[in-house]
Amino acid sequence: MIELADIRFAWPDAPPVLxxxxxxxxxxxxxxxLGANGSGKSTLLKLLNGLVQPQAGGYRYAGEEVxxxxxxGGEWARRFRSEVVLLFQHPEAMxxxxxxRDEIAYGPRQLGLADAEERAERWLAALGLAPLSxxxxxxxxxxxxxxxxxxxxxxLEPRLLLLDEPVSSLDPRASGWLVDFLLDCGKTVVVSTHNxxxxxxxGERGLVLGEGGRVLxxxxxxxxxxxxxxxxxxNLVHRHRHRHDGIEHAHTHSHDWExxx
Length: 261
Description:
By secondary structure, the protein is an alpha/beta fold. Helix content is 33%, strand content 28%. The protein has a six-stranded mixed sheet with strand order 6-7-8-3-9-10, sandwiched between helices. A four-stranded antiparallel sheet has the order 2-1-4-5, with helices on one face.
C-alpha cells in the first residue's frame, strides 16, 4: 500500500528532517513509528498524507505515484483524500466547525456522500460523543477534542490511518478503546509515539527514527523495545547516575513522561 524510496525532506534553511527514508507497508499492516521529539515522525505522517512533498525520492500509494499535480484535484485526489487520513497530534488544528456533529459530518459532506449524517451519528455513538454533539468543539477538554478529531476521520471510513501520538490526550478508557479498535479494524495503520509503554499495544512492526530523520531500525517492534542501545541512540531512553548507600551506579529510563505534556 505504501512505498517510499530514499525520501528526503527539509524545511527551508534547515537541516533534513527526513534523510534517505525507504519504507514499504502492506495493506492491513500496523506500523509503529518510534522516535524522540524532532526525529521526523510528524513530518513523515504529513508526507504520507500528501500535505508536504519530498525534495528527493518517490512516494507510491496503492501502486500509484503521489505527486503535487495529482493531489490538486480530480477523481484520483478525491479518492486519495477519502482513503488516506491523518490525525494530528494537536486536535485543535483539525477542529473548526460550529458543533461536534458538524465536525464529524464535515468530511463526508465535502465528499458528497449521501449517508454523511448517518456516518456522523454512528461515530458519535461509537466514541461516546453523543452527549456533546451540539457543543462547540473549542469548548471541550483536550481528550474530548482528540476523540472528536478521531471520529471526524473515521467517518470517512478510510483504508489508511495515519495517527500522530493518538493517545496523548485520551483517558485510560478511551485509550483502551482505541487500541482495541486499531487491532480489529482491518485497516492499514501507521501510528507515531514516543511512549514506549504504549507502543507494544499499537502494532507489531516498529520503525525507529533517529536524529536527522535517519532510519535506525525497521523490524519486529518487540526487538526494538528490548534493544536498550538502540533506544538510547534514538534518545528514547536516557541514562542517569544514582547513589544508594554510598554506592553509585547508572541505568536507563524511558521518556514516557513526555507524553503527558
